[in-house]
Amino acid sequence: MREPGESVESGAGGPVRPVPVDGRPPPRRSWAEVRWRQFRHAPRPIVRAVAASLSVAIVLAIAYLAYDVALSRGAELPGGDLRALAIAGYIVVVLVSGSVITYLVVPQPTRAGTLARRSTWSAALGFFAAVPIAYLVMVAAVQVVRPMFG
Q1: Is the sign of the CA dihedral 56, 61, 64, 66 positive or negative?
Q2: What separation in angstroms does the CA of 68 have from each of 53, 90, 111, 141?
Q3: pTM of the full predicted structure?
Q4: What does DSSP assign to residue 48?
Q5: Is residue 94 scored above 90 in pLDDT?
Q6: 81 near 71, Cβ under 8 Å?
Q7: Whole-angstrom Cα distance, residue 113 to residue 59?
Q8: Is the separation of the CB atoms in 60 and 94 below 8 Å?
Q9: 76-to-6, 60, 71, 120 alpha-carbon distances in Å
C-alpha cells in the first residue's frame, strides 16, 4: 500500500515499487543489512543442501572425536593410528553424501502437475555446499571441542 505523497513507478517488466514524490531514491541498505536479509530468506534448495551436508558432517566429526580421544588415551585399536586416513575418509563421505542427498531432496523446478525431475545441478549444489561445511565442522571439532577432552 502506498504512503500518502508517493507515486508508483515500474521498470521495464520489473517489480512495482513506491518512489517518493520528491524524486529522491529510498535509503540504501548497509552491507550487513543486505547479508542479514539474505540469510533470513535463503532459498529452500540452499537450506536443504546445507542441512544435508551439515548433519552428515556433525555425525562423522563426533565419531572422529571419539576415535581421536580413544587413541590419545592409550587405546590399542586394530590398524594402529589411522587419524589421517580417518580425516580423508570423513571428507570423502561428507562430499559424496552431501551431493547424493541434495540430488534426492532438491528436485528441478517443474510446472504444476508434472513429476519432479532430478538434475545433476542439484548434486553439484550439494557438493559445493559440502566443501566448506566439511572443513568448518572438522576445524570446530578439532580446535574447539577436542581440547575440552584433554
Answers
A1: negative
A2: 22, 13, 50, 11
A3: 0.72
A4: H
A5: yes
A6: yes
A7: 37
A8: yes
A9: 76, 21, 7, 43
